[in-house]
Amino acid sequence: PTIFVITPTYSRFVQKAELTRLSQTFLHVPQLHWVLVEDSPHKTPLVAGLLADSGLAYTHLHTATPKERKLQDGDPSWLKPRGAEQRNEGLRWLREDRRAPQGADSQQGVVYFADDDNTYSIQLFQEMRSTQRVSVWPVGLVGGMRYERPVVEGGKVVRFHTGWRPSRPFPLDMAGFAVSLKTVLANPDACFDGNAPMGFLESSFLQGVVTMEELEPRADNCSKVLVWHTRTEKPKMKREDALQAQGLGSDNAVEV
Ligand code: UGA
Ligand code: MN
User: What is the CB-side half-sphere exposure of residue 237 using CA atoms within 13 A?
Assistant: First the structure.
């Protein structure tokens, strides 16, 4: 089955670097379709060009996060969920595209929500390809922990190892689960709640489609870390700004 990877992305200095790293990881994965959704009122040439040159099968979408739901400069990053509208747009496209069966296989697939800044082992994609409903695994360097993970006993998920509010319905990071396309299509209303309180975005989607007992542990009964919640430092532009003030800034025609 094809793995549909839904990635929200937004314009910033490191965007092309993040998307380059991500796309070159995906090139190592067979049967992957990248659904890249820009948080923007229009598709940007930078992203369009990167996709066209990527060598990947892809769909390029966009939807802007409404202003009242978007983080403002100076807001702490946890105040509002990020990427919710974009993931929902990816789901909308997928449901529309796969609705009319093009063939027996068109409803076979796996959906994974991959943020543009994390680090993914190509082995992770082998693990998720057999997802029946929802598969789960550990995520490294997340939630103020070395890792968070579902705890597996007798082949079943019985609780979650997390440092914060373990009572959440699904205390999992976005990077820690995949859903079968069949499940996405069978639950046409399942989506991400852009107004979810901090830490409840993943639960807002998963609650509608699966129970804890049904979760399918992967990565050796959730004993291996194959994805890391890395975050990229914001580059400083002190010198650039100083030179620009003298009319000597870098050439805007050079895409970075
Ligand atoms: C954590 C989780 O790993 C995310 O999956 C979750 O969406 C987020 O918290 C949240 O609480 O909303 P974190 O590293 O803090 O992630 O979030 P980012 O990586 O900054 O953003 C997640 C995704 O949304 C990224 O793919 C990013 O490119 C995208 N994004 C971010 C937008 O599309 N628009 C924005 O304004 C900001
Ligand atoms: Mn991130």
Answer: 10
